[in-house]
Amino acid sequence: MKLKEIPFNDQSAVRIYKDYLYRIKKEVRGLNQQNQDEILMELNSHIYENLQAHPTGNEVENLLNILEKLGRPEEILKPLVADKKLAEATRTFNPIHVFKALLLNLTNGISYIIFFVLYLFLFGFVFLIGAKIWNPSQVGFFYKPGEVFILGLSKGLANPADELLGNWFIPTMVVSAIALYLIITLLLKLKRTINK
Amino acid sequence: MNEDFIHKWISQVKKGTLSFIVLNVLKSGKAYYGYDLINEIKKITEIEIAEGTLYPLMNRLKDEKLILSEWVEQESGIPRKYYSITPEGKNTVTKMEEYWHNLNNSVLKITK
Questions:
Q1: Given strand B80-85, what is the order of strands in its sheet?
Q2: Tens digits of per-residue pLDDT, A40-94?
């Protein structure tokens, strides 16, 4: 199903209406197409049914009253978009979706902040892969009991001989990133299940 | 009297009870679309709800499997999304009612 726009006689009403639709579209842009259409169509239906219930009077005035009662899209859609994005993210396993969902849900509690920090670690592993290619001698896993423990750039603080992974550094980071990613997503799924 | 405090308190109470009110309207088994539901709530309870808050709430109730939704085509070409209660929703609202009555009794006792 696709959106059918509401016809207006007054050009000012058309402009106000289109602007409101544009603001809704902007708010829901991060969601998949089906969710975007659902939200847009439902609010469009709300406006239409409301207008039908008040057929007399000034079109612009009626429309402005309806939109004022409905509220600003930037405010009313925030919780809806955050919920839907999280549902999308845990279904798809797409890292970009998960990251966006976590950002949208940061205000919803401390647990999401923890997830977010875990996610930063994940990006850390990915970053180190690039860093290793760019600066192979100084980037690695340097470890000497009681002296050195560095995962990342040694900045000359560690003896290159203490680097333990060598050519295995990149494969280890890849495996760590994938493992962490799977753990985060499964934990998110688990959290949603527990919440229910 | 601290009007600002009362205003905030009322909006919190409304927010907290909206899901209970919505489920109560739906429990008869009749399906409602958003605008219709808002009017029904206004008619029965005389509570003015912030209309925009209804839709995120309906999405949550749906996620919790307490209600279902279905798009129904209209002659106008602008379809309506109808919501109806699930058996789980009916059981849930019954439990909520029990709690509400207990709470109400307690509050009445304390405000005497």
A1: B32-33, B80-85, B67-72
A2: 999 999 999 999 998 888 999 999 999 999 999 999 998 889 888 888 877 776 7
**CB nearest to B78's CB, from A48, A76, A83:** A48
Positions of chain B with pLDDT lower than 50, given as ranges: none
pLDDT mean over A11-31: 94
Strands (E), chain B: 32-33, 67-72, 80-85
The CA–CA distances, whole Å, from A169 to A77, A122, A132, A158, B45 equal 44, 15, 8, 16, 66
Q: What is the pLDDT of residues A105-126, one digit of tens each?
A: 776 677 777 888 888 888 888 8
Query: For the whole model, what pTM was predicted?
Result: 0.70
- Give the Cβ contact number of residue A164 at 10 Å: 13
**Contact yes or no for A71 and B52 at CB 8 A:** yes
Cα dist from A175 to A66, A140, A150, A186, whole Å: 54, 15, 19, 16
Task: Determine the distance from the C-alpha atom of residue A92 to the mean position of all C-alpha atoms in its chain, rounded to a whole number.
Answer: 13
* Cβ contact B78–A76 (<8 Å): no
H or E, element range at A140: strand A139-144
Distance CA A184, CA A71 (A): 35
